[in-house]
Specification:
The complex is a heterodimer of chains A (about 100) and B (about 200). Chain A is mainly α and about 100 residues long. Chain A has 3 helices and no strands. Chain B is an all-alpha fold. Among the domains of chain B are: about 100 residues, NADH-ubiquinone/plastoquinone oxidoreductase chain 6, subunit NuoJ (Four Helix Bundle (Hemerythrin (Met), subunit A), Up-down Bundle), CATH 1.20.120; about 40 residues. Classes of the chains: A mainly alpha (about 100), B mainly alpha (about 200).
Chain lengths: ~100, ~200
């Protein structure tokens, strides 16, 4: 398949990730949308790496994106736990206090 | 299953079959596999947005992550595909399901007009940008004929450990993971006063 096919899939996944973030009223959907966006960028990195000489740089970027996603998921889940403990709700619009 | 869900899944099936046929016509067996992984990726995320229940959405993300791993395989990056399945499907999805367990069920949270409006707005924006960018260049690919993919994890490992290549980012990533995990444990821990039973409930609280 040509490079443009991979780019189209990546753009569609990015769109769906943004839609998932802005259209749902739940912090967990925001996290899922972020994962989709990170995956879309990973597809872009891997596709450009493959079609521009097949070096190592693009793959390294994907590996670092995956590492970043793992760290982000762990910290975000800890924050969600605390937010639910404090506010008894995980709607992003109701979390509006910095202090306890 | 209510009527809109039936319509949605019917439409999704039709779209999937169309994508598979389009891939088969355009690229033969390779195109068919590409269409299959595309359908897995985009279908999984569409179901994630559509479903009311958080558990179903989280599990439909498994299809998305597996489809992306398949696309990595088609791009000749099998180490990435393995890492994707290990970390996303095995790790991040399990974390998300832990989060799902503490969220109260709210079946009326998804508003269809919001979803459709956001889809139209964001899709229009992304499509406009894609059209503008694609009108400036004919093809982004430097080489027309593809080289044989380098399918050794050894290359990536040597790239990580070679001082002239990616040793510093590798160490930084290790440091970041350590800090992030310790911070996650610190943030998520229970305070001491939450664990002890409170003896004076009528006091200041």
């Amino acid at each position: 398949m040509p490079l443009e096919a991979y780019l189209a899939v990546s753009a569609a996944l990015f769109t769906l990730g943004i839609v998932c973030i802005v259209s749902r009223r739940n912090i967990l959907y925001v996290l899922m949308g972020i994962e989709m966006i990170l995956n879309a960028s990973s597809i872009n990195f891997a596709a450009f790496n493959r079609f521009n000489g097949d070096g190592l740089a693009g793959r390294m970027f994907v590996v670092f994106v995956i590492i970043l996603a793992a760290a982000e998921a762990a910290v975000a889940l800890a924050i969600v736990l605390n937010v639910f403990h404090l506010f008894k709700s995980i709607k992003p619009s109701e979390v509006d206090l910095l202090r306890e | 299953m209510d009527r809109p869900s039936q319509a949605f899944y019917g439409l999704l099936t039709l779209l999937s079959l169309t994508a598979l046929g389009w891939g088969l016509r355009g690229g033969g067996a390779h195109g068919l596999v590409f269409g299959l992984f595309t359908v897995l990726t985009l279908g999984g995320s569409l179901v994630c947005i559509w479903e009311r229940s958080v558990v179903r959405s989280a599990f439909s993300l498994m299809a998305t992550f597996t489809g992306v791993a398949g696309l990595f395989l088609l791009l000749g990056a099998d180490f990435l595909a393995m890492a994707q399945i290990l970390i996303y499907v095995g790790g991040i999805l399990a974390l998300l399901l832990f989060g799902v367990m503490l969220s109260p069920p709210d079946m009326n949270e998804r508003k269809l007009p919001r979803v459709i409006g956001a889809l139209l707005l964001v899709g229009g924006g992304v499509g406009w940008v894609a059209l503008r960018v694609s009108s400036t260049t004919r093809s982004w690919a430097v080489t027309e004929e593809l080289p044989e993919p380098v399918t050794h994890a050894r290359e990536i490992g040597l790239g990580f450990l070679h001082p002239g290549k990616y040793l510093v980012p590798f160490e930084l990533a290790a440091f970041l993971l350590t800090v992030a995990l310790v911070a996650a444990v610190y943030i998520a821990r229970r305070k001491k006063e939450d664990l002890e039973p409170r003896d004076s409930l009528g006091g200041q609280s």
